[in-house]
Amino acid sequence: MTKIQFFDTTLRDGEQTPGVSFSTEEKVAIALQLEKWGVDVIEAGFPASSRESFRAVEEIAKVATKMSVTGLARLVKHDIDQAFEALKEAKFPQIHVFIATSPIHMEYKLKMTPDEVIASIKEHVSYAREKFEIVQFSPEDATRSEKDFLLKAVQTAVDAGASVINIPDTVGYSNPQEYGELFRYLIENVQTDREIIYSSHCHDDLGMAVSNALSAIKNGSRRVEGTINGLGERAGNTALEEVAVALKIRQDYYGQETQINLKETKNTSDLISRFSGISVPKNKAVVGGNAFAHESGIHQDGFLKNPNTYEIITPEMVGVAQSSLPLGKLSGRHAFKEKLKELGYTLSEEEVKEAFIRFKDLADKKNNISDTDLRALLTGQTIEKAKGVELEELNFSYHAGGTQEVDIAVRFETGEVKSAKANGKGSVEAVFAAIDQIFDHEIIVNSYELDAITAGVDAQAQVYVSITDRLTNNTYNAVGIDYDILKASALAYIYANNFVRQ
Ligand SMILES: CC(=O)SCCNC(=O)CCNC(=O)[C@H](O)C(C)(C)COP(=O)(O)OP(=O)(O)OC[C@H]1O[C@@H](n2cnc3c(N)ncnc32)[C@H](O)[C@@H]1OP(=O)(O)O
Ligand SMILES: CC(C)C(=O)C(=O)O
Ligand SMILES: [Mg+2]
């Protein structure tokens, strides 16, 4: 079994994500976490690009003890010198130099002829090699380069001393078969006596960054470049946590090892999500909030009988506390019963059957069924509109930065109308205080949830309120729906209080 090196460029390509900018302190914290995760090489930045980038690379070079630290440089002597200066204190320094080799980049961006590009590779890779033991060369936009010219560029870099050849799919243009074949082609045709490491660097424009990186590995690549959470230019880079887990789970297929400490995966992803301000989509592989959640009945049933029926990765493997079985309208009786057990209820088969019917009705109306909802359901309460009570009037005066005033009237089934006035620091607080006066119950508010049912400024608001009657210890849930948030809040709270009264 051979080993795949992990090259993390979260701090360089990842920081190229529009809107993302890490401070030097955040970069150092991320670097230390990446070292804990087990990366082999960290691309700490592009030292010539700014003073902050230089300082961050310098600081990371000082603190990295196990991983190699590299910096990016154009084929420009000043860039290479800056990288050398920034990496002076690194225990294991490397440099990463690049130039584009595709016709469109050479002609329009670089304004260089192919011969000039080859001459620049020869000159600058040699220059970099005088300063660094390990030089990585990238022919930018490799996958849109002419194959013969790409080979010539790579051969020139190898002859000039590069020992790592990284093949960037800069604009995410390639596909797994084609990208894999490109690695085979280069590995078979570059002439050298030295050992050359071939590396992949993929972008996700067509959603194939991870698949392309894995195909490169299958075709002889021994280094994978990418970022945590797939951060990076445009649609991002290869998500390294996905590659790490894929190599582990499908070791039978890839036959490769890594030195990644998978248990640190979730911590690493969380840290980068926090510092970048880019949240991880719920359905993202490996680290998404739903990666270990099963809501549909058949899956929940299978999972309860044997977790392997529906989970190929265990949550523990990647540092997630545990799998979850959230209840929803597609859930089944097995998971429902399991949840009741967890909440401490022992019901007869008949009672479970009856409660399950009410649960399904509730789940048809409410997306997230909480433990509080279930407790209320089991004490016989539903979120149906309470009968015989109506909001007669709701007047509100808003004072920016001050106390809010509410004037409310409620009509009961007898025709009686009760009204009250109240103040509060916030509008909802004032509404609730006024309703408290009308009902005069000893209650505890367990939760207040606000959802937008529809999108846009005219969205319908749906408010859920859960309260517990201090006298009986019973919990009551109610829902209020209106285009106005305050009215929806008032309705939910009135209905919940009316349950206590009944
Ligand atoms: C595919 C990638 O991700 S590549 C990395 C992209 N990352 C970044 O660009 C982030 C950091 N970049 C920067 O801070 C700035 O672009 C700098 C400091 C590098 C350069 O800034 P400026 O001197 O103002 O130039 P600017 O960015 O406008 O243009 C880039 C110049 O570099 C040239 N260039 C681009 N790539 C290379 C290369 N690999 N080797 C040599 N020259 C290059 C361009 O042709 C252009 O040259 P020109 O000024 O003669 O037209
Ligand atoms: C600098 C190179 C490796 C790059 O980020 C790309 O081509 O996408
Ligand atoms: Mg890139």
Automatic annotation (TrEMBL):
Its cofactor is Mn(2+). Residues 4-266 form the Pyruvate carboxyltransferase domain. It comes from the Bacteria. One of its GO terms (biological process) is L-leucine biosynthetic process. It holds the Pfam family LeuA_dimer. InterPro entries: 2-IPM_HCS-like (IPR050073), 2-isopropylmalate_synth_dimer (IPR013709), AIPM/Hcit_synth_CS (IPR002034), Aldolase_TIM (IPR013785), LeuA/HCS_post-cat (IPR054691), LeuA_allosteric_dom_sf (IPR036230), LeuA_bact_synth (IPR005671), PYR_CT (IPR000891). Pathway: Amino-acid biosynthesis; L-leucine biosynthesis; L-leucine from 3-methyl-2-oxobutanoate: step 1/4. Its EC number is 2.3.3.13. SUPFAM superfamilies: 2-isopropylmalate synthase LeuA, allosteric (dimerisation) domain, Aldolase. Mn(2+) binds at D13, H201, H203, N237. SMART domains: LeuA_dimer. It is an enzyme of class 2 (transferase). One of its GO terms (cellular component) is cytoplasm. Keywords: Amino-acid biosynthesis, Branched-chain amino acid biosynthesis, Cytoplasm, Leucine biosynthesis, Manganese, Metal-binding, Transferase. One of its GO terms (molecular function) is 2-isopropylmalate synthase activity. Residues 390-502 are annotated as: Regulatory domain. It catalyses: 3-methyl-2-oxobutanoate + acetyl-CoA + H2O = (2S)-2-isopropylmalate + CoA + H(+). Catalyzes the condensation of the acetyl group of acetyl-CoA with 3-methyl-2-oxobutanoate (2-ketoisovalerate) to form 3-carboxy-3-hydroxy-4-methylpentanoate (2-isopropylmalate). Belongs to the alpha-IPM synthase/homocitrate synthase family. LeuA type 1 subfamily. Homodimer. This is 2-isopropylmalate synthase. It comes from Pilibacter termitis.
